[in-house]
Amino acid sequence: MRKFLVTLTIATSILLAAGNSQARDNKLMVPIADLMAKGQTQDKLDPEIRLLFAGQSYPEPTRKYGNFVTNKKTNAFNKSDSEACDWVMLSALIALQDRARSEGGNAVVNIESYYKKVVMASATEYECHAGNVMAGVALRGDIVKLP
C-alpha cells in the first residue's frame, strides 16, 4: 500500500508540473535578406513573380487583383527557431506566388507581416512566432501586374 501511495504522489507531482508549464510563443524579427540569400530559397521561389516588401518601390501596376493573406505553420520540433522560421516564411512566400499566378498577376507588392491580424510592415524583417512544436508566419500583400 505504501509503495502505491508513493507512486501515486510522484505521478500527481509530474502531472501538476506538466500542467503548470506554459507553451512557448517567442516573437522573432528575422532579416529577410538572410532567407533570400540561401540557395534553397532561390531554388523554390519563382523568379517570374516578384516579391516586394512594404516600403520597396515598384512601377505603377497595370492591373490590381486585390490584397491576399497567407497564414502558414510548420513543425518546429527538433529545429532551431531560425530553421523553423526560414522554412515557414519560404512556405508563406510560395503561397503568395501561387496565388499571384492563379489570379494572373506577376508580382506581390506591399508584403507585410500580419500575425494575428496585427500589421508589422518592414522592407528588411519579417515576424515569426516560434514555439516548442510549431512556428508560424502570416503575410499579406497586394497582387498586381507590373509592366
UniProtKB/TrEMBL annotation:
Keywords: Signal. The keyword Signal applies. Residues 1-23 form the signal peptide. It comes from the Bacteria. This is Excinuclease ATPase subunit.
